[in-house]
User: Fold this.
Amino acid sequence: MSAAWPTGWKNKMAKKRTGDMTFSDKSCIDLSLERLEFFFDTFDQHAIAFSGGKDSTACLNLALQVARDKKKLPLRVYTFDEEAIPPETVEYMERISQNDELDFTWLCVPIEHRNACSRTQPYWYPWAEEDRNLWVRPLPQKAVTDLPGFRRQPAEAAMEKLFSPKNGTLCNIMGIRCQESMTRQ
Assistant:
């Protein structure tokens, strides 16, 4: 499959291997579309992580393209709103959530985040009800604030409560830039 992207995007992409690198002459876009096709063909359910940033936007647009081709709409999308995000990002996420091709879940739950600003409080919890007076902004209109059985846990626990498939398999898809993905295990 070849994407309808501008010419000149054909850069060599490295694939991580144990200890060495092998290269492909395919573009990043084509390799991403191939991987997404594999996910849509292999898994019964799909969920796209969306932060409103450029990496997740690219991932969402590519996944939406594949979901359209494979007639697997609406595409399930979720965001963990971290409360202290720029107003422009909030506005952009609100606009994206209006897309009828998406089943958009806007989570405003107190997921555990590392706090790099304090030695005495190593974690912070956006949207924690007991800290309502400290919230940076009001809750979004579409906010999901309660997941049954979820209280102050890492994001993975919230994902399990939200996406635990009753039948079949689930693929959680998220965008990450190549420079970071090459160093992650």
Summary: The chain is about 30% helix and 20% strand. The two ends are 28 Å apart (CA to CA). The first strand starts at residue 13 and ends at 16. The beta strands are 13-16, 21-24, 45-49, 75-80, 102-107, 113-114, 123-124, 143-144, 170-173.
